Amino acid sequence: MREVKIYTTEFCPFCVQAKRLLTQLKMPYEEINLEDKPELRQKLSEENNGYRTVPMIFIDGSFIGGYTELAALHKQGKLIES
């Protein structure tokens, strides 16, 4: 099973879509809300080429991007392990 971490904020429609997709695929994930963690958000941004938007999604420890990248991986059949 892949390890998925998703960094989110309140009222983020792309975060909701990402969590919905993962739930539909029955992929467990850990959600970390960045609402009250500006230092962590800044650190994640610096470590990932200045990526600042949420969700920030990591699969097996690797940063993949946000919802658009997650959906693209699913569409390509690369999200779920065989």
Structural notes for this entry:
By secondary structure, the protein is α+β, with helices and mostly antiparallel strands. The protein has one domain: Glutaredoxin (3-Layer(aba) Sandwich). The chain contains 3 helices and 4 strands, in the order E-H-E-H-E-E-H. The protein has helices at residues 13-24, 38-47, 67-75, and strands at 4-8, 30-33, 56-59, 62-65. The protein has a 4-stranded mixed beta sheet with strand order 2-1-3-4, covered by helices on one side. Helix 1 runs parallel beside helix 3. The longest helix is centred in the N-terminal third of the chain and has 12 residues, at 13-24. The mean pLDDT is 95.
**Computed Rg:** 12 Å
Please tell me the overall pLDDT: 95
CATH architecture: 3-Layer(aba) Sandwich
Beta strand %: 15-25%
| CATH level 3 topology | Glutaredoxin
Give me a quick take on this structure.
By secondary structure, the chain is of the alpha+beta class. Helices cover 38% and strands 21% of the residues.
Identify the notable features of this structure and list them briefly.
82 residues, alpha+beta, four-stranded mixed beta sheet, Glutaredoxin, single chain, globular
SSE layout and pairings?
Elements: E1 4-8, H1 13-24, E2 30-33, H2 38-47, E3 56-59, E4 62-65, H3 67-75
Helix pairs in contact: 1-3
